[in-house]
Amino acid sequence: MRGLMTLGIQVEVAGVLINSLAFLGALVVVYFWVEQQYDTDAAKWTTSVLAWCPFSLFCTVIYTEGLFLLLTTSALRAFERGEYIWAGFWGALTTATRGPGVALIPTFLLTAWREKRPPLSYAAGLASAIGLFSFSLYCALRFGDALAFIHVQKAWLQPTWWDIFRELLSFRVQAASKVAMIFGGGYLLWHLQKRLSITVFCFGFCSLALLINSGALQSVHRYAYGILSLSIGLGLVLSRHPRWGYAVMTLFATFLLYMAVKFAAWA
Predict the structure, then answer these.
(1) Which helix (DSSP H) or strand (DSSP E) does residue 152 occupy?
(2) Long-range contacts for 146-150 (Cβ within 8 Å, ≥24 apart)?
(3) Residue 33's pLDDT band (boundaries 50, 70, 90)?
(4) Which of 21, 25, 59, 221 would you call most buried, defined as having the most Cβ atoms within 10 angstroms of its Cβ?
C-alpha cells in the first residue's frame, strides 16, 4: 500500500487493489491446485465456495482476507509438492500477515512427522514462524509490547461461547453463522478425513482449535472463512451433489448482497 501511495494512489484505492488482486490470485491458485489433487468439478465448486461465500466481501475491501488466502494457499500447495523452501517463505509471509497463520507451523511439523518427510520439511515449519517473530519484534520496538497485536483485542467487546450459544437459541443469524463455521466446519473435516490430504486436514483442525481458544470471538466466523480446508471440504461435497450446490450458491449470493449493503451502511 505504501508503494502504491508513492505513485499518487490514494490509500483507500491502494488497499482495495491489493486485497482484491490477492484474492483473485488465491482463486486461481486454489482452482489449479484442487484440480490437480482431485478433478475439475471439485476445483470449480471449491472456487465457487470461496468466491460466493458472504465473507468474501472482506476480500474486496481493506482487510487482510485476500492476501491471507493467497499466502496460505501458496504455502500449503508448496508443502504438498515438496517445495519446502517456498513453503517456508510463503509461511513466513502468512504469519506476518495475520496471527491465525501460525496454524501452518504445527501443520507442517505434524505432516512431516506423520509422512516421514525429509528434515527440510521440518525447517519449513520452523521458518514459518519468522513472520510472527518479526512482527512481534516490530511491536516491541514500536509500542514496547511484543504482543501488542494480541492485547489490543481487549479494546473490542468480545463475547464468550456461552454468549454465542445463548444468541443461537434466540435465532440470531450472527450466532448461527459462528457455530456453523466453527463446529460445522469441524464435522465437515472429520467426515472427509479420508479424502483430504494430511496437510489440508491438519491445517483445518489446527486453525479451528486456535480460533476456538483465541478469545477473539467477535469475528470468529470471518476468520474461519480464511481456513482454506473448509472451502475445499465443502467444494468436494458439492461436487458430488451439484443440486445442493446451486441451492447453497443461491443462499450465499443472497447473504453476500445483504452483507454488502449492511457493510456499506456501516450497520
Answers:
(1) none
(2) 149/99, 150/99
(3) very high
(4) 59
DSSP 8-state secondary structure symbol assigned to residue 246: H
Residue type, 172: R
Q: What is the mean pLDDT of residues 230-250?
A: 95
Residue spans per domain, the chain: 2-264
Burial 9-46, CB ≥16 within 10 A → b, else e: eeeeebbbebbeebbebbbebbbebbbebbeebbbbbb
pLDDT digits (tens, 9 = 90+) for 127-175: 999 999 999 999 999 999 998 888 887 777 888 899 999 999 888 888 9
Q: Report d(CA 23, CA 110) in Å as an integer.
A: 28
Contacts 24+ apart (CB under 8 A), 51-55: 51/27, 52/249, 52/252, 52/253, 52/256, 53/225, 53/231, 53/252, 53/256, 54/252, 54/255, 54/256, 54/258, 54/259, 55/221, 55/222, 55/225, 55/259
Unique residue bearing C-alpha cell 470471538 = 217
In this prediction, residue 202 carries a pLDDT of: 96
Q: Is the pTM of this model over 0.90?
A: yes
Element containing residue 154 per DSSP (H, E)? none
Residue 190, CA atoms < 13 Å, CB-side half-sphere: 7
Say if residues 178 and 217 touch (Cβ distance below 8 Å): yes
- What is the average pLDDT value for the chain, to the nearest integer? 93
Cα distance between residue 119 and residue 106, in whole Å: 15
Helix, strand and coil content of the chain, in percent to the nearest 5, comes to: 80, 0, 20
Give 173-197 pLDDT, tens digit per residue.
Answer: 889 999 999 999 999 999 999 999 9
